[in-house]
Amino acid sequence: MKKILVPVDGSESSGRAFEKAVELAAALKAKLAFLYVANVNQLAVNSCLSAELLEAVNKAGDIVLTHAEENAPEGVETERILETGSPAPTIVDVAEDCGADLIVMGSRGLGLVKGVLLGSVSQYVVENAKCAVMVVK
Fold first, then answer.
1. Rounded to whole angstroms, what are the CA distances from 135 to 56, 75, 81, 111?
2. Which of 97, 75, 95 is nearest to 30 (CA)?
3. What is residue 62's three-state secondary structure?
4. SS3 of residue 6 by DSSP
5. pTM: predicted TM-score of the whole model, two decimal places
6. Rounded to whole angstroms, how far apart are CA atoms 92 and 8?
């Protein structure tokens, strides 16, 4: 295992996934790729986003990614990825594009609508990712 993708959003569940991913990366000497997906679908009104709103969403993502990088242990290589779109398919696409061997993610994020058992995002990723997926509760 060379690369672990970790979707982060600042939620408690995401934090637990971060901890597990850090543990795995340290043990396997794998690279951590932190991904923040700015879910503009939840914010769009009449499919029209202002430049200011998009900038604010990206700034929030930058803060979350910086926090993740700063809390990764020394000696573990990291990268940051900031994307805009629908979280579930974006996570799957980024995992494939960046060559992730594993996705470690929380069972629920900060979405406005929560899934019934697993969060709808984690369920989609489990069903559609081409690499292994670990969902952390």
1. 29, 25, 20, 16
2. 75
3. helix
4. strand
5. 0.88
6. 14
CA R_g for the chain? 14
Task: Indicate the helix (H) or strand (E) that contains 37.
Answer: strand 31-38
Report the distance separating Cα 33 and Cα 118, nearest Å: 23
Query: Which token pair is 102?
Result: 């594993």
Residue 83: CB partners within 8 Å, gap ≥ 6? Answer: 35, 36, 37, 38, 90, 94
For residue 65, how many other CB atoms are within 10 A of its CB?
19
pLDDT bin (cut points 50, 70, 90) of residue 48 is low
Amino acid at 93: D
Three-state SS for 116?
A: coil
Fold of the domain spanning 3-136? Rossmann fold (3.40.50)
Give buried/exposed letters for 100-122 (b at 16+ CB in 10 A, else e): bebbbbbbbbbbeeeeeebbbbb
User: Quick check: 95 and 83 in contact, CB under 8 A?
Assistant: no
Residue of higher predicted confidence among 116 and 102: 102
Sign of CA dihedral 110, 84, 52, 8: positive
